[in-house]
Amino acid sequence: MTQHHEHDHHHEHHAHQHRKPGGIYLISPSGAVADAATLDLARQRLADLGFKTAVDRTALAVHERFAGTDKQRLAAIARSLKQKHPIVMATRGGYGLNRLLPFIDWEQVAASEKIFVGLSDFTAFNLALLAKTGAVSYSGPTAIFDFGAKKLDELTASLFVESMHQELEILSFETQDADPVDARGVLWGGNLAMVASLVGTPYMPKIRGGILFLEDIGEHPYRIERMLTQLLHAGILGRQKAIVLGRFTEYRLGAADGGYDFPSTVAWLRSAIKVPVITGLPYGHVKVKATLPIGKKVGIATEPGMAHLVLEEHF
């Protein structure tokens, strides 16, 4: 029930702690953009929210399923570091970043101090940057899926704007199913398939005592469980302070499932680890999504029916 996602506005304006959001540079590091008109609409919507935008010159390139050749997409990332806008946003997800990871100069990415935002396939970029440099980036809306949608979700837009202003202090959300927890740790994660794909590689962050958040789309519950077992057997799940589940959407059960559905996956997860599990995070391939800082130390606490993610703490 998306209308119940609330976020608390504790707007204490500490001028020195808040960035002006500035402009957004749009790149296509993964899948090809199917319809240029959706990108135009996204730019208009972002302008309405106060963001100037610039589009990378190969953002609409097409090579096979990708937004241009590997070389073109790497060049776009390199250009994004040198241009003037502080925020760099992926136009869309898809597939294609994993094959680029060895060829990206991560120190240069971190040194640029750009604010990177994307979802889905972009998880590979978020996590590689964290693993290699410790720099914070964001998992959140993409230009086309969110800002280029037929109808812009206002909560997604306001959560994005507040995150870019560093004004989203507490993200509170309804949860039907949360273990009690009150903890602090590094927030990390993203798309489950992408997280699992990085296990055993130099691009997997080594996070102990973290808060791991996950989502996925079009993955059957048993496949979700299989990816979670990979993280479990690799020792990753057991080292966290909390596992926060976003939305797992667009799958169809078959006769062979015998009643095994996503709640069965969650029940198995709880039986397999002692780490608290929290469901209901407004995040994933869904209309209402939070913008979440990957690599930042945050707090998480639950009470009956509610969970609170403390994103900005003022000491």
From TrEMBL:
MF-aspect GO terms: carboxypeptidase activity; serine-type peptidase activity
Biased composition (Basic residues): 7-21
Span of domain LD-carboxypeptidase C-terminal: 184-298
InterPro entries found in the cross-reference section: Carboxypeptidase_A_C_sf (IPR027461), Class_I_gatase-like (IPR029062), LdcA_N (IPR027478), Peptidase_S66_N (IPR040449), Peptidase_S66C (IPR040921), S66_fam (IPR003507)
Entry-linked CDD domains: Peptidase_S66
UniProt keywords, alphabetically: Carboxypeptidase, Hydrolase, Protease, Serine protease
Annotated Gene3D superfamilies: Class I glutamine amidotransferase-like (3.40.50.10740), LD-carboxypeptidase A C-terminal domain-like (3.50.30.60)
Source organism superkingdom: Bacteria
Location of the active site: 120, 215, 285
Record-given protein name: LD-carboxypeptidase
Biological source species: Pollutimonas harenae
